[in-house]
Amino acid sequence: MNQTSKAHLTPPKRRLIELMQDINFGRITNIPVRDGEPELTPDTVIEREIKLGGQSGPRPERDQDDFILKQEVVTLLEHLAQMGSGKVCLLEIKHGLPFLMRIEERAA
Asked: Which domain of life is it from (predicted)?
């Protein structure tokens, strides 16, 4: 099994993973994708779920320089690569990992 680590990713992909770990629970909306690379822009919106009395802070892995990516992250990156260019309308995050993604596609 070929494993991918954080250190082998491009800076935009590392930034997205670190943002997901920082959010821990919540959503990111309006993420442009160009040539399979996510672009966080001023139009990208971050929604955080604050769990009162529960874990709401960033994931402990957030500040690690390298680790093996979980399957959910690998799957997200594969979808971005297949997408090429477009927009992720919604990326839902649970426990610092991508859980659900809605993308925008053009019919023609």
From this structure: Bacteria
User: Domain tally for the chain?
Assistant: 1
pLDDT tens profile 10-24: 999 999 999 999 999
Whether residue 107 lies inside any domain: the answer is no
Beta carbons of 34 and 85 less than 8 angstroms apart: yes
pLDDT digits 0-9 by tens, 56-73: 666 656 565 676 889 999
Handedness of CA 97, 11, 47, 30 (dihedral sign): negative
Helix 71-83 crosses helix 11-23 at what angle (to 10 degrees)?
130
Residue ranges making up the domain that contains 81 = 4-48+65-102
